[in-house]
């Protein structure tokens, strides 16, 4: 099961920069992400949410395209509709991604000019690398399913 991490920052661009740091170490094959989201709240309180496609959605799209292609040969219109429906169902069950309701809740709580980063981390990822990647920023752990010792290390690095 994937681990979850939500971190809030006082700076508007901190979450985007922190995600860039995490993406840089993701190429090492020691860190994998299933889904990410960045929330930005401008000085006027307007919220912008950048939610990347989860791997479940990607899996569903691939399977849906394959099923749709097969069905399209036999039943053209039904193939397109059936493939789309099957892809959505497979994507939803494969990996639900980051909970949109929780993202909106955190967004509402952000101060004007603040930001938040949400990570759904693949199992067997090196969480120590993630802690180091986020250590360049000042923030607060909002919620996590990481082990207590990793959460403490992350909390300490964000101060």
Describe, in plain words, how this protein is organized in 3D:
The chain is an alpha+beta fold and 159 residues long. It has two domains: 3-54 and 96-157, 2-Layer Sandwich (Alpha-Beta Plaits); 56-94, no CATH class. The chain has six helices and five strands. The protein has a five-stranded antiparallel beta sheet, with helices on both faces. A hairpin with a 5-residue loop joins strand 2 (33-41) and strand 3. It starts with a strand and ends with a helix.
Topology:
Layout: E1 3-9, H1 14-26, E2 33-41, E3 47-51, H2 55-74, H3 76-94, H4 100-109, E4 115-121, H5 127-134, E5 139-144, H6 148-157
Antiparallel strand pairs: 1-4, 1-5, 2-3, 2-4
Write a brief caption for the model.
The protein has 159 residues and is of the alpha+beta class.
Kindly list the characteristics that best describe this protein.
159 residues, 2 domains, 6 helices, globular, five-stranded antiparallel β-sheet, Alpha-Beta Plaits, alpha+beta
Q: Output the structural class.
A: alpha+beta
Number of strands: 5
* Coarse shape: globular
What's the CATH architecture of the largest domain?
A: 2-Layer Sandwich
Distance between the termini: 29 Å
Query: Please, how many helices?
Result: 6
Global Rg = 18 Å
User: What is the CATH C-level name of the largest domain?
Assistant: Alpha Beta
Q: Runs with pLDDT <50, length 5+?
A: 55-60, 89-95
Helix % is 40-55%
Remind me, CATH topology of the largest domain? Answer: Alpha-Beta Plaits
Q: Order of strands in the sheet with the most strands?
A: 3-2-4-1-5
Mean pLDDT: 81
Helix-strand topology string: EHEEHHHEHEH
Counted up, domains total 2
Strand content: 15-25%
Characterize the biggest β-sheet: 5 strands, antiparallel
């Amino acid at each position: 099961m994937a681990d979850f991490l939500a971190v809030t920052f006082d700076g508007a661009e901190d979450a985007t920069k922190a995600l860039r740091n995490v993406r840089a170490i993701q190429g090492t094959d020691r860190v994998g992400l299933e889904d990410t989201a960045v929330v930005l709240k401008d000085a006027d309180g307007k919220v912008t949410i950048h939610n990347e496609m989860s791997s479940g959605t990607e899996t569903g799209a691939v399977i849906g395209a394959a099923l749709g292609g097969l069905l399209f040969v036999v039943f053209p219109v039904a193939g397109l509709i059936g493939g789309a429906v099957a892809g959505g169902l497979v994507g939803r069950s494969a990996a639900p991604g980051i909970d949109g309701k929780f993202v909106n809740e955190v967004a509402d709580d952000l101060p004007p000019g603040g930001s938040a980063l949400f990570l759904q981390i693949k199992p067997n990822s090196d969480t120590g690398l993630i802690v180091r990647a986020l250590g360049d920023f000042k923030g607060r752990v909002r919620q996590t399913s990481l082990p207590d010792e990793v959460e403490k290390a992350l909390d300490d690095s964000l101060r």
